[in-house]
Write a structure and sequence with these properties.
This protein has about 190 residues and is of the alpha/beta class. It has a single domain (about 1-190), classed as Spore Coat Polysaccharide Biosynthesis Protein SpsA, Chain A (Alpha-Beta Complex), CATH 3.90.550.10. It has 6 helices and 9 strands, in the order βββαβαβαβαββααβ. It starts with a strand and ends in a 21-residue tail after the last strand.
């Protein structure tokens, strides 16, 4: 299993790179990485080409995985599939950097509930909607999805659509866990963080 911090978004609504926003002494990408490392997982940071140089001053270049634009995908799916292409034999525990309130206990629940023999993914269900950016994806399932994309038979590139194509073990988000799933997309949302 490999931990993947998704930091490669455009952050257009935020107006600044979300992965580099600071929360206390760390930036959001570091915070997410540390939470995955605390689960005894090796961790990579998924970034886009424009971010690579800046992130290489914070993270080891061996930890950075730059989006493969040749995949012709967009959004988080590009980061996930790039990570899969770089580590095709690994299952991926994915965490978006813009969920800075995520708790280690929530991630631990995901990891301990994961049943790779029976499912292709494990994700939380929050208000009857899947949380694809805090989820586990089986390497063989991602290989199948990537093959569909290369055959031009993957009609949509959203992470929720990806989950709809997999056999998923869903975990309901409990009331005390809801705060952990807040994601932040605009400066106004940062008040009180």
């Amino acid at each position: 299993m490999l931990g993947v911090v998704l930091s490669g978004g455009q952050s257009s609504r935020m107006g600044t790179d979300k992965g580099l926003i600071r929360l206390e002494a760390r930036n959001w990408a570091q915070t997410a990485g540390e939470k995955l490392t605390a689960l005894d997982l090796p961790v990579i940071i998924s970034v886009n080409a424009l971010q690579y140089d800046g992130y290489s001053t914070i993270f080891s270049t061996t930890q950075l995985v730059k989006d493969d634009e040749g995949l012709q995908l967009k959004g988080p799916l590009l980061g996930v599939m790039t990570a899969h292409s770089a580590f095709p034999d690994k299952d991926l525990l994915v965490l978006a950097c813009d969920m800075p309130l995520m708790e280690k206990t929530v991630l631990q629940q995901l990891l301990t509930t994961w049943q790779p023999a029976a499912y292709e993914a494990c994700a939380f269900l929050h208000n009857n909607e899947p949380e694809p950016l805090c989820a586990i994806y089986k390497g063989t399932a991602l290989k199948r999805i990537l093959a569909l994309h290369r055959q031009q038979t993957l009609p949509r590139f959203s992470m929720k659509y990806l989950l709809s194509q997999l056999n998923v073990l869903y975990l309901p988000v409990q009331a005390e866990q809801e705060r952990a799933f807040r994601n932040f997309n605009a400066q106004a949302e940062l008040n009180g963080l």
